[in-house]
Amino acid sequence: MEKELRVGIGYDSHPLVSGRKLILGGVDIPHDKGLSGWSDADVVIHAIIDALFGAADLGDIGMQFPPEKPKYENISSLVLLIKAGELVRAKGFQVANIDVTIMAQRPKLSRFIPEMRKRISQALAIDPTRVTIKATTTNGLGFIGREEGIAAQSVALITIIS
Q1: Residues 25-28: contacts with CB under 8 Å, at least 24 apart
Q2: Nearest C-alpha neighbor of 12 from the set 73, 67, 87, 79
Q3: Tens-digit pLDDT profile for residues 64-120
Q4: Are 53 and 148 in contact (CB under 8 A)?
Q5: What is the pTM of this model?
Q6: CA distance 10 to 3
Q7: Which has the least CB within 10 A, 6, 109, 113, 139?
């Protein structure tokens, strides 16, 4: 009997603003601006959570962690990712792999990717080789190219726990 495979896709974007830390993949990135949002606005982790929830038929991040609830204000998205992993496992699934693309004109992110992979894999209790993160620019195009915001998209593959 074949294992059931389920795929989910996630996307998130937030505007860049002064006076906030830039947190991506659970890592504090030195930059002159940060992302605006109710939590820490970590678009990488938000995209992963939506991908996982899509694959597991759990709705989306806003359904599970409503932004109007005060307990989620300024919360670390890593905490939300831990809870998301627990919800996925409670439905009888395990994470097979995560693939993420970060879209940011600046800052350059390559040196931070190993730490992002480590933190995400720890939060999901999976091997870091199951988390792939890439970063790209938009070559000056759109809101990302104008450095007005940062976006991330993710794909998650989950399987039934055997």
Answers
A1: 25/100, 25/102, 25/112, 25/113, 25/115, 25/116, 25/117, 25/119, 25/120, 25/133, 26/76, 26/77, 26/78, 26/81, 26/116, 26/119, 26/120, 26/123, 27/112, 27/115, 27/116, 27/119
A2: 67
A3: 999 888 888 889 999 999 999 999 999 999 999 999 999 999 999 999 999 999 999
A4: no
A5: 0.96
A6: 23
A7: 139
Per-residue DSSP letter, 2:
P
The DSSP bridge pattern shows strands 93-103 and 131-136 to be parallel
Single-letter residue type at 158? I
Please give the order of strands across the beta sheet that includes 5-17.
34-35, 5-17, 149-160, 93-103, 131-136
Amino acid type, 88 = V
> Domain 5-160 adopts which CATH fold?
60s Ribosomal Protein L30; Chain: A; (3.30.1330)
